[in-house]
Amino acid sequence: MRQFLIIVLVSLMLVSCNSTSIVSSWKPENSTTVSLNKVLVVGLMGNKERQLRELTERAVAQALSTNGINAVAAIDAMGVPPKDMKMNKETIDKELKDKGYDGIMIVSLINKDKDVDINSPGYYNGWWYGPYWGWGGGMYGYAPPYVSISTKYGVEANLYTVTPEKLLYSVLTKSYEPDNKVKLSERYAEAIIKDMQKQGLLKVTK
Questions:
Q1: How far is Cα 87 from Cα 69, in angstroms, rounded to an integer?
Q2: Structure pTM?
Q3: CB 18 within 8 A of CB 187
Q4: β-sheet with 132-135: strand ranges across
């Protein structure tokens, strides 16, 4: 029973940590639904976060494509740059010009921190917890303490037209993820798509 309780508590903790929320977002006044034919999604996250960059680019590109905007991840269009090469504006500009993109979304990792949460032990009413004992007709269980370590990410995304270079949408998010970058990228893409729909930049799909 005690092992079952620990599994339940850890599962609840993981669910609470797997989240992405919008801190702020912006669009030009009187803007309408985004009308772009081809968007390049570029992640600027540094060499240490190459996996996160690839996952995020693909998740965002897929989410945009599903919602009516043809989008391509830079990792698929341009490949992985050498470790000593930084993704710079000249490299991106050449790709945009050569491949006929009319839009670009830049996704930048601006902050990354570790969060440590220590849950104090306690007693829970409920006869199915164990070990348990009866008192006055009730049953009580003891929950052992646990430590939760998660990573907090601050990410900014900006969507531009290529010619002329004009900002169409900007969003800042914060995400908590217990070392699961696949879910992090998927939830991130889902969050910004919902915000773009809320802002009227994307049509709501059923």
A1: 24
A2: 0.73
A3: yes
A4: 122-125, 138-143, 132-135
